[in-house]
Amino acid sequence: MKDLQGNRIFQASAEAVDYYNQAVSAFNIYTGDPFSLVGKAVEISPDFAMAHIFKAYLLGLATEPVLNGYAKDTLRHLKTMHLSDREASHLGALDLMLKGEWTAAALVLDIHNCNYPLDIVALQAGHLMDFYRANARNLRDRLARILPYWSGNDNFFKVHNWWHRALYHQELGQENVVLSIYDNQIRHGNSTAALELVDASAMLWRLSLEGVGVGDRWDELADCWQAHADGHSYTFNDWHAIMAYLGAGRDIDVEKNLKDCKNIKPGLESEMQQWTRQTTLPLIEGFIAFWRKDYQTAIEQLYGARFIANSFGGSHAQRDIIDLTLIEASIRAGQPELAQALANERLALKPNSRLNRGFLARSKGRAVSGVH
Q1: Are 196 and 256 in a shared domain?
Q2: 293: domain range?
């Protein structure tokens, strides 16, 4: 029998292992009551050594005198049991920890996880020891040592993390790297999940603002948005769908989505429809105006919208696209004073930003290498 991470389990029934897995999962995300859950596992299978080991860690890592005594009692019981090599390795760490030798215990778990990289109990116990010892380097390196053994394909944040990395490369003017990340990470597999389509739309829009050619990437993205942009479900999605429709030149879809967003019956607004009316419509209309080169209208819609955009979600990084579009509209509209003022806002926060310095230089009529 194995636990959720694939480590072998001995002397335990399926029911006991289920309670054990629940207890470890609760510990992993610091919620619920792992003590009572692992207690049930031990009650069902008294010879379940790994459950006793986990219980001892929970008690000892709590750093409370009474619980520390209970942990020592558990350790004494464990020393009477027949243990596997992995379980015996845990015992060495527990023995040292409960003697107050935290650094030595953490070192044992360093080596332990080299041999058992999927042992999440050892990993988290060691990580807490690193925290208690203020060992910042090992807080990082303990995870780095075993990370290649863990799957990255099922990480729900994988695409969004790559999106954030792409922003750094864009900041450095490495548009080819950004496009490579887009193709190989953000849109690898052509996911139709709305959360990933949002990242894709925002990335292509940012590149387009800088004058980077994105080829037919807009077309594939616009196709995927068809199932999600209905003007009612989540208005943040509609805004990003509009970006894709504009980029793909699908004016019919733009107008349909815009009409759906405006189709709100007076007096019957849901909260989502309030967001649409108050926040999304100014953004959508501003982005449409920008793409169609009506820069003055874009400025009028987006200048005020940027202050209320956090009313419907998204991170600061995601909503930054509003300010980027606004300042680009100001430059293209021939309003250098406004463009300089907006650039100064950004430079006050990030004075060394290539993008921000580029905006300021362009607002003053100067060409900047690497900035379009």
Answers
A1: yes
A2: 158-333
